[in-house]
Design goal:
The structure holds 2 protein chains of 2 kinds. By secondary structure, chain A is of the alpha/beta class. Chain A is built from 9 helices and 14 strands.
C-alpha cells in the first residue's frame, strides 16, 4: 500500500490543454500514472495524446470512473476547478497552482467541510507513490525509490533534496506528499501522519517543516499522543529574519511567532528526533 | 500590496465610510494653500505605505502659517519608521487633513486568522494605540464564515460591545460602519483593513481618522484599478524593485551570497551555511520557471552587493533548467567581471548541458556535489577572502 494514491488511482487532469497541464500530464503518464481523462471545457470529443477530454468533471466520473484530480489551471480559475472536483465527489484533489487569492482558499476550506473529498495544496508539488508507479505532481521522478519511508513536506525543491539523499542512502519511499507552501492548505501534517500511521508499507515518517504558522507545533503534540512509528523532523528557516516572507506565502515569522527554534523545541519536547542537516535525516533512520 | 492612507481613504469614501476633509499636497506650497483653504488647524500626514509614522515624526499638527515649513521638512528627508526599510522612504505626498474634534477613539479592523482559516473582525473601545498594547479582555472578536460572509447579528454584536460604555454612540451608525468595512474587505480582496482610530466626533458622526489597507497581491487580477496604483508606487526600496522582477529576495547581514531554486531549499541552504558557522548574505529564491534573463538579474543583484565575498549557487532542478542557469550566469558575466569565488552545485534537469555551457564559455567555478559540501566550501572560502 501507500497513502492516497496507488495502482487503483484513476486520475483526471484539470487544465490538460494548457502549457503546464500538457507538460506535466505527459510526464505523469510516462511514469506510470493511470490518467483516465483530461478536463478542458469546450473540447470534449478531442484527445490529448490518447487521453480523452471532457467538458466537465462529472462527465469524467461517469464515463471513466475517475476518483482523483490534479489541478494545473492558472490561479484565477483554480477555485472554480477545485469546487467542481469536490462537487463531483472525487476522493482527492491535488492543487499544484500557486498564487491563489487567500480569500478563495478560505472559501474552499469552508466548502470542504462535510464533504468526502481531500484537498492537497494549493501550492503543492503533488504526491508520488514510487512502488505503485503513481505520480500526481511536478516532481522529478528519477530521484524516487520504492521503500518504506513516508515523507510529508511544505516545500517542493527542499523535498527533492531530502528524497535524493534518502534514495542515495538506500531508503526508498512509500509515499511522498507535498502539502503546500500557502498559509491555508487542505490536508495538513496531522492528516498525513494519521494516514502514514495506518499504512502497512510505511515504517518511518520524515516530516519537513518550515517557518510560519504553527502546523509543526500541532503535529508535535499529535505525534506524541497518536503516532507509534518513528518520526524524524527537519525544519528549515533558522536563519530567516522576522516579518519577511521567505518565498512561500506561508513562510513568515509574524510577531515573534512561527520561528524555526520554537518548532524544533516543541518537536524535541514531544520526543521527536530533529535532524540538524539534511544528511542527518538518513543517519537517524533506524533499520 | 499596502495602500497609502490617502488611497485607502478614497476607497472608504466610495463605500460610504466618512473620513475627515483632506487634500493631497505634493509640494510645500500646496500644503500651505490647502491649509489656508481649510481655515483651521490641520494635520500634515506623510504618505508612505508603512506604519509607525506618528512616532517617527511623519504626522504633524500645524496652522496655516506653519504648514509650509513643516511640509518642507517632511518632503526633504527620507522617513524612517520601525516598519520601513532601514534607508527609509522618500515622502512624495502629504495628506493635509482638517483637524477634527474628538470625543472618543475606537479600534476596528478585519484581518485573516490563519489558524481558524477565516476572517476575523477585531474591535476595541481603546483606539489610537497599537492594538497589541490593549489588554485581551478589552478586545472583541467576531469570526466570519467565508462562505456566507458577515451576518447582521454579528455587526450588531460588535456594535453593542463597542457602545456598551459609550451611550452617546449610535448602534445603527456603528453597525453600518462594521458592515461597510466588511464589504471593503471582501470586495476589494483585502488581507487586512484597519481603522485606527475610528472616532466619534463632537457632532456625533463617526469617522475613519486613519486608514490602513493591504490588498492580497494574488488577487490583483480582479482589481485592475488597484494594480494601477502599484505602477505609481512610491516605495523605491531595493527589495520591492527586485520583487517586481519575480525574484524572492531578502537581504541579510552576512558575506555569502546565495542563489537557490525554491523557497524551502533556499532557507535550508542559508541554514546549512550557518550550521558551518558562516553567514548568509541573502535569501534568494529564483523560482521554478526562471529564464536566462531572470537568472542574469539574480546574479547582478548579488554582484552589486559589496558585502558578498563568495557566491553559493545551489540548484536542484525539477522544472528548473540548469542550462538556463549557465546561460544566465554567462550573460551576467558579459556585463561584469567576477572577482570573487563561485561555488556551484547543479543537479537535476539538464545539469550536463549546463556544465557544458559553462565549460565552453570558460567560466571559472568550483563544482560541488551536495548541499552540505557546497555550504562548507563556501564558508571556508568566505573566511579566506576576509584575510
Amino acid at each position: 500500500m501507500s497513502i492516497l494514491t496507488n495502482k487503483n488511482t484513476r486520475l483526471i487532469v484539470q487544465g490538460i490543454t494548457g502549457k503546464q497541464g500538457s507538460f506535466h500530464a505527459e510526464l505523469c503518464e510516462k511514469y506510470g500514472t493511470n490518467i483516465v481523462a483530461g478536463i478542458s471545457p469546450g473540447k470534449e470529443g478531442t484527445f490529448f495524446k490518447n487521453i480523452p477530454i471532457y467538458n466537465t468533471v462529472k462527465r469524467a466520473v461517469k464515463e471513466k470512473k475517475a476518483n482523483a484530480s490534479i489541478i494545473l489551471v492558472p490561479a484565477p480559475y483554480a477555485i472554480d476547478a477545485i469546487m467542481e472536483a469536490i462537487d463531483a465527489g472525487l476522493d482527492f484533489v491535488v492543487c499544484i497552482t500557486e498564487g491563489i487569492p487567500i480569500q478563495d482558499t478560505m472559501r474552499i476550506k469552508a466548502y470542504l467541510k462535510n464533504k468526502k473529498t481531500k484537498l492537497i495544496g494549493p501550492n503543492s508539488p503533488g504526491l508520488i507513490s514510487p512502488g505503485d508507479k503513481a505520480k500526481i505532481g511536478i516532481m522529478p521522478a528519477h530521484i524516487y525509490r520504492n521503500g518504506n519511508i513516508g515523507v510529508i513536506s511544505r516545500s517542493g525543491t527542499l523535498t527533492y533534496e531530502v528524497v535524493a539523499e534518502l534514495s542515495k542512502n538506500g531508503f526508498g519511499q512509500s509515499t511522498c506528499i507535498g502539502i503546500g507552501g500557502d498559509p491555508i492548505i487542505g490536508t495538513n501534517f496531522i492528516d498525513c501522519l494519521q494516514m502514514f500511521e495506518k499504512d502497512k508499507e510505511t515504517s518511518t515518517i520524515v516530516m519537513i517543516g518550515e517557518i510560519g504558522g504553527n502546523a509543526e507545533e500541532k503535529a508535535a503534540e499529535y505525534i506524541k499522543k497518536h503516532i507509534t512509528k518513528p518520526v524524524i523532523a527537519y525544519i528549515c528557516g533558522l536563519t530567516a529574519p522576522p516579518e519577511k516572507q521567505m518565498g512561500h506565502a506561508g513562510a513568515i515569522i509574524s510577531k515573534g511567532k512561527g520561528t524555526a527554534e520554537e518548532k524544533i523545541k516543541k518537536l524535541k519536547n514531544a520526543g521527536i528526533e530533529v535532524a540538524n542537516t539534511i544528511e542527518e535525516i538518513s543517519a537517524k533512520i533506524k533499520t | 500590496m499596502k495602500l497609502l492612507e490617502c488611497e485607502a481613504k478614497e476607497i472608504f469614501e466610495k463605500y460610504g465610510i466618512l473620513v475627515p476633509l483632506g487634500k493631497i499636497a505634493t509640494t510645500a506650497t500646496d500644503a500651505y494653500s490647502i491649509a489656508c483653504e481649510m481655515a483651521s488647524s490641520v494635520m500634515l500626514k506623510a504618505q508612505i505605505p508603512y506604519g509607525g509614522r506618528g512616532k517617527a515624526g511623519g504626522i504633524k499638527e500645524a496652522n496655516a502659517s506653519q504648514a509650509y515649513e513643516i511640509a518642507k521638512n517632511l518632503f526633504e528627508k527620507r522617513l524612517i519608521t520601525k516598519q520601513t526599510p532601514t534607508k527609509g522612504i522618500l515622502v512624495k505626498k502629504i495628506l493635509v487633513q482638517k483637524k477634527v474634534e474628538i470625543l472618543k477613539e475606537f479600534y476596528l479592523s478585519i484581518v485573516l486568522d490563519r489558524e481558524k482559516e477565516c476572517p476575523v473582525i477585531i474591535a476595541s473601545q481603546f483606539g489610537g494605540v497599537d492594538i497589541e498594547e490593549v489588554p485581551e479582555k478589552e478586545i472583541f472578536k467576531e469570526y466570519i464564515d467565508p462562505l456566507i460572509g458577515l451576518q447582521k447579528w454579528q455587526a450588531r454584536k460588535i456594535a453593542f460591545d463597542l457602545c456598551a460604555k459609550n451611550p452617546q454612540m449610535s448602534i445603527a451608525l456603528t453597525m453600518d460602519i462594521v458592515s461597510k468595512l466588511w464589504k471593503i474587505f471582501e470586495k476589494e480582496d483585502c488581507s487586512m483593513v484597519e481603522i485606527n482610530p475610528l472616532i466619534l466626533a463632537t457632532d456625533e458622526k463617526m469617522l475613519a481618522l486613519d486608514a490602513k489597507m493591504v490588498i492580497d497581491d494574488n488577487a490583483l487580477f480582479r482589481h485592475p484599478e488597484t494594480s494601477n496604483l502599484k505602477l505609481n508606487s512610491i516605495d523605491d526600496s531595493e527589495e520591492t524593485r527586485i520583487k517586481e522582477m519575480g525574484i524572492n529576495y531578502v537581504k541579510l547581514d552576512g558575506n555569502i551570497g546565495c542563489i537557490v531554486n525554491g523557497a524551502g531549499l533556499a532557507m535550508a541552504t542559508m541554514d546549512a551555511i550557518k550550521f558551518f558557522d558562516g553567514e548568509p548574505a541573502n535569501f534568494l529564491d529564483i523560482g521554478g520557471g526562471a529564464n536566462p534573463e531572470k537568472i542574469k538579474n539574480a546574479f547582478k543583484i548579488l554582484f552589486a552587493d559589496k558585502s558578498i565575498n563568495v557566491i553559493f549557487v545551489n540548484i536542484f532542478g525539477g522544472i528548473f533548467r540548469c542550462d538556463f542557469l549557465a546561460e544566465g550566469l554567462s550573460m551576467a558575466l558579459e556585463e561584469q567581471n567576477l572577482n570573487i569565488s563561485l561555488v556551484l552545485r547543479m543537479e537535476g534537469n539538464k545539469a550536463d548541458e549546463g556544465s557544458k555551457i559553462l565549460n565552453q564559455k570558460n567560466i571559472k567555478f568550483i563544482p560541488i556535489n551536495g548541499l552540505s559540501e557546497g555550504a562548507l566550501k563556501a564558508v571556508k572560502l568566505s573566511r579566506e577572502d576576509k584575510k
